[in-house]
Amino acid sequence: MGERDMVTALPDAPGRDLTLAMIADEAGFAALQPEWDALATQMRARGCLRHAWALAGWMHSMKPRGGRLCIITARDSGALVGLWPLARFQHRFHRELRPLGWDAWDVVDLLVAPGPAQAIIVDALWTAACRQGQVLYVPYVQAGSLLADCINARAAWTARDPFRTYVADFQGHVDFASYGRSITRSGSKDGPRRRRLGKLGALRFRHETDPARRLAVLRWALAQKLAWAQRRGVRSEAITDQRFTAFLESLAAGSPEQSPLRVFSLCLDDQVIAADIATLGGSVLDSHIIAFDHDWARHSPGSLLQGDVLRWAQERGLAFDFGVTEDAYKAEWCNSRVVMTRHVAALTPGGLAAVAWHWRLLCYRRLRSRYRRALGWVVSRLIKPRAVSLVKRLRVRAGVTYQQ
User: Fold this and answer.
1) CA angle at 357 for the pair 351 and 359, rounded to the nearest 5°
2) How far is CA 376 from CA 326, 369, 373, 390, in A?
3) DSSP helix/strand/coil, 258
4) H or E, element range at 402
5) Phi/psi zone of residue 89: left (φ > 0), alpha (ψ -120 to 50 degrees), beta?
6) Residue 59 CA to its chain's centroid (Å)
7) CA 120, CA 18: separation in Å to the nearest integer?
8) Rg (CA), the chain
9) For the purposes of burial, counting CB atoms within 10 Å of the CB of 146, is it exposed (0-12), middle (13-18) or buried (19 or more)?
10) What is the pLDDT of residue 267?
11) Staple 359 to which of 41, 100, 146, 159, CB 3.0 to 4.6 Å?
């Protein structure tokens, strides 16, 4: 294993022990799949905490970047009751731990079986992680989760970067029409758009389950998203990264039973005109990429597909998470927002210097953002109106002079 087993007695189970181990090889990683997914299902964990997601992230992101497996398991009488899947990166002055997956998207947590011993298992997993690294990087963690509470209570110091994610919560709504009446978005144009498209062919919403079809729609969506970014002058490192494409393709090739990736499409006859790439886990459907064919933009196929996917989620009792980016259309579709926090936390005193550097960088970025917002306010509210007024006066004066 590369790390000796650590044993902690469970107070509510006399004569039984909680055994911790660290898995550092791919064979052990693969062998965990049935127990891992069973524990994730028991916890109703998000799709990015499933085994297939972690494996794809390891193979296409973390392993190529020089990471080493550091999967911490907790067993009670042989049964898996706790799991913290991590990768370890060696930096110049410290070792950093990151949750297995794709950093930019993952909303992570500890996988710990519910029960009276949950707090003890969480504490044991944290203690074991402190022996493996000095710094913990967490892309997103939801407020009130096991990992969020653990970081807040046990980290020596943490640099926090909070975000708000848009969520469609269907609780209290008997159907999608009821939910539609409770949000700010007006769907008055959706019906005419569907009718206009219906005159051009058969309009169909599809949840893609065939692996070959999922892969084809995924590649189409990535190509459309890249073309959209180029038209808008938007720089997206993920869309142009071949490792990211390979990461998603490996998930799309898997069966829906094992892979958390979900692919939705809006088709006109056999032609895909919009696609949504999401992950399903527990009670949440997380949307990651929505793309549409620019040739059909005047019909707003992306918006029509978004309504179909939300309806699909509502019918299955799922919340729909749009992610943390600040897009206006998300606010129109959603009725709540959830706090997500990115952490760079010191696990030991040896990680304090690295966290201090991240904290300084974060402070600089916040000051730069405030400066840009203030500058934009000055330009739009003070300089621009006065400049327009001055130009008008000069034009009037020049016109009077010309007439004379």
Assistant:
1) 100
2) 18, 11, 5, 20
3) coil
4) helix 384-403
5) beta
6) 19
7) 9
8) 25
9) buried
10) 95
11) 159
Q: Between β-strands 111-112 and 6-9, what pairing exists: parallel, antiparallel or unpaired?
A: unpaired
What is the Cα–Cα distance from 162 to 145, expressed in whole angstroms? 14
Q: Smallest Cα–Cα separation from 150: which of 76, 79, 99, 94? A: 99
Closest CA to 276 of 315, 238, 307: 307
Beta strands in 151-298 (DSSP E): 157-168, 203-208, 261-268, 271-281, 284-292
Residue 403 has pLDDT above 70, yes or no: no
Task: Identify the CA nearest to 317 among candidates 179, 140, 165.
Answer: 179
Measuring CA to CA, how many Å separate 133 from each of 97, 117, 137, 166, 263?
Answer: 6, 25, 11, 33, 37
Joined tokens for residue 78: 């042989």
- pLDDT, tens digit, 9 for 90 and up, residues 338-365: 889 999 999 999 888 888 887 888 777 7
Between helix 118-130 and helix 146-154 the angle, nearest 10°, is 60
8 Å CB contact between 79 and 137: no
- Give the pLDDT score at 265: 96
CA distance 227 to 239: 10
Q: Whole-model pTM?
A: 0.85
3-state helix, strand, coil in the chain (%, to 5): 45, 25, 25
Burial 233-260 (b: 16+ CB within 10 A, else e): eeeeebbeeeebbebbbbbbebebeebb
Q: Can you tell me the distance from the alpha carbon of 380 to that of 383, in angstroms, rounded to the nearest whole number?
A: 6
Copy the structure tokens of residue 59. Answer: 């193979």
